[in-house]
Amino acid sequence: MDIVVKGRKTEVPERFRKHVAEKLNLEKIQRLDAKVISLDVEVSKEPNPRQADRCDRVEITLRSRGPVIRAEAAASDPYAALDLAAEKLGARLRKQHDKRFSRRGARRVSAAEVPDHVPGVATLNGTGATATEEGADQVPTKKVGSLEVQGEGPLVVREKTHVAAPMTLDQALYEMELVGHDFYLFVDSETKEPSVVYRRHAYDYGVIHLRTDTMITQEHSPEAGGTLGG
């Protein structure tokens, strides 16, 4: 397998091509992913003088039998941008490798071992009731966001609002691989519906579309015959 280096609206000097070959160690990459098919490096330059500190951009695209892995970075020169992009690529490759390894090495946990592997798991007292039920009256309740939480539980509520333009499914998959996440929330440009793409097992993807049904909304409305109010 060779590394393909190309420039977009810019020339790529031979010295930089040699640096790419040295920086992206193919043997190391193939140890992390033995099914690599191609490795492309694209260099581009931003002509805007106001972005002089980020004028050179390097995007690395690794294609294999699994998901496409991309890493990009921008800096004041292409060599620094390549170093940053290579670090991101290495981190994502290691993440994928560790995920595959953990799936293969996973084993069943016996019932006796559950408390050792699952923090906060319910335990039984001498009468057979759970310790949680026994001490429920003494557990303080607090408000976390819009929820009521008993005790110090590991529940963390954080709300985020993002502004994003509608995009196609292909664009959403690209953005998901770009940020290195296992899922990506977007608005479908064709249906205008909130949707989520996510990575499934065996290196394939899934997509979930959320569609509003006015009949269901009315059926579950407090004003609709007191359905929720009782």
Would you mind describing this structure in some detail?
There is one protein chain. This protein has 230 residues and is α+β, with helices and mostly antiparallel strands. Among the domains are: 2-103, 2-Layer Sandwich (Double Stranded RNA Binding Domain), CATH 3.30.160.100; 166-209, 2-Layer Sandwich (SHC Adaptor Protein), CATH 3.30.505. It has helices at 14-23, 26-32, 78-105, 114-117, 131-134, 169-179, 214-219, and strands at 3-8, 36-45, 56-64, 69-75, 141-144, 147-150, 183-187, 194-199, 205-209. Helix 1 (14-23) packs parallel to helix 3 (78-105). The longest helix is centred in the middle third of the chain and has 28 residues, at 78-105. One of its GO terms (cellular component) is cytosolic small ribosomal subunit. Residues 153-207 form the Sigma 54 modulation/S30EA ribosomal protein C-terminal domain. One of its GO terms (molecular function) is ribosomal small subunit binding.
H/E topology pattern: EHHEEEHHHEEHEEEH
The CATH homologous superfamily of the domain at 2-103 is named Ribosome hibernation promotion factor-like
Coarse structural class: alpha+beta
Low-confidence stretches: 224-230
Biggest sheet statistics: 4 strands, mixed
CATH class of the domain at 2-103: Alpha Beta
Q: What general form does the structure show? A: globular
Q: Tell me how many strands there are.
A: 9
Total helices: the number is 7
Strand composition percent? 15-25%
CATH topology of the domain at 2-103: Double Stranded RNA Binding Domain
CATH architecture of the domain at 2-103: 2-Layer Sandwich
Overall mean pLDDT score? 76
Rg over alpha carbons: 25 Å
